[in-house]
Each structure stands twice: as structure tokens, then as C-alpha cells.
Design brief:
The chain has 6 helices and 7 strands; from the N terminus they run ααβαβαββαβαββ. It has 189 residues and is an alpha/beta fold. Strands 3-2-1-4-5-7-6 form a 7-stranded mixed beta sheet, with helices on both faces.
């Protein structure tokens, strides 16, 4: 059993910066977000969910593809940054919360798990995957994208969490992209 990344890690990261992972400043992040959105198999979705939205850079791209997009972040600085970045996007709702505890009610046509699963404990990861299955509408899409290199503060590697995703029964793999820096999967229920 693996334990979750401690809350102190996130407090330290957010305490030092308004953009702790340089999501808005690095070309590698911009490119990864563009590839994530380009991998979406549908032009438009009704309702989408993005836990761990950080400062909302990917959120703005996903909002253009959804009627109603829920972005969630665990730290208030991220919530504030995402709200500011998405102020002109009425289809975006930003909430403070963390998965799996604050998983929202209702069904989604799209769930995007970007750079979030490798922080979870073994039990939390299993719970999140169960919640994805329960809340994804029939024919809905799951997009997962995670950093591949080993990071001491991460409970899992990106490859490990994606392997667990791909092993779940009842999912159809639509896309699988592996690069040195990240892995991206699109799965349909």
C-alpha cells in the first residue's frame, strides 16, 4: 500500500509561487496542454470535469470544448488563479476540493485527469478510478496525462497510473501517446 503525497508538499509548493509547476511559463507545458486538447475525440462535450486544475491554463482550453466545465483545485491560490484566468468564461465553474473526497455529483461526458493521479494513495487511486467509472456518462471519454520521470514527492510514476487505467475492464483505448516527459491516454467507457 502506497501513501499519498503529504499535504505539506502542496502547501510548500503553493506557498512559494503563484505558478508552482510553471504551467504558464514553460513551452513543454503549453505543448502538452495543446496535445491533450487535440487528442479529444469529440469536437464538443456537454459537461466536463477537471480535478487538479492548477492555475487554470488547461482549463481555458477545455472550456472551449464544453458547455459546462467544472475545474477543481485543492489549494486556494490555485482556485483564485483559475477564477481570475477564466473570469470571462461563463461555462467554467471553479471549486475548491480534492479527489476523491470532494468528487462532484452527476454525470460527465468528459473527465480530464491531468497531473493528479500520481499524488494519491493506493486506496485513493482505486477510489478515484471507481468514481470515474460511476460518473462518466455512457460513451463518455476519459483523458489522462501525467509526467513520466520519477519525482520523489510523487507516490506513483505516470507510467504506473496509466497502466492501471488501461488495465481496467470495460474501457476502450482511443489514443496512447508516450514521450520522454509525459504519457497521454484517451479511453472511452
Amino acid at each position: 500500500m502506497r501513501t499519498a503525497t503529504p499535504d505539506a508538499y502542496f502547501e510548500r509548493c503553493w506557498g512559494d509561487s503563484d505558478d508552482p509547476w510553471a504551467h504558464a511559463r514553460r513551452w513543454s507545458e503549453t505543448r502538452k496542454y495543446r496535445l491533450t486538447v487535440a487528442a479529444l475525440p469529440r469536437l464538443h462535450y456537454g459537461r466536463s470535469f477537471e480535478p487538479g486544475c492548477g492555475i487554470g491554463v488547461l482549463t481555458t482550453l477545455l472550456a472551449a470544448r464544453s458547455d459546462a466545465h467544472l475545474a477543481m483545485e485543492r489549494h486556494e491560490r490555485g482556485v483564485s488563479a483559475t477564477r481570475q484566468r477564466c473570469a470571462g468564461l461563463p461555462e467554467v465553474t471553479v471549486a475548491r476540493g480534492r479527489i476523491p473526497d470532494d468528487w462532484p455529483e452527476g454525470a460527465f461526458d468528459l473527465i480530464v485527469l491531468s497531473e493528479v493521479l500520481y499524488y494519491l494513495s493506493s486506496g485513493e487511486l482505486a477510489d478515484v478510478l471507481d468514481r470515474v467509472e460511476a460518473s462518466l456518462a455512457p460513451g463518455g471519454d476519459l483523458v489522462a496525462v501525467h509526467h513520466r520521470p520519477t519525482v520523489p514527492e510523487h507516490t506513483w510514476t505516470g507510467d504506473e497510473v496509466h497502466e492501471r487505467l488501461r488495465q481496467r475492464p470495460g474501457w476502450t483505448g482511443l489514443s496512447h501517446l508516450v514521450e520522454d516527459g509525459f504519457v497521454l491516454d484517451v479511453l472511452r467507457r
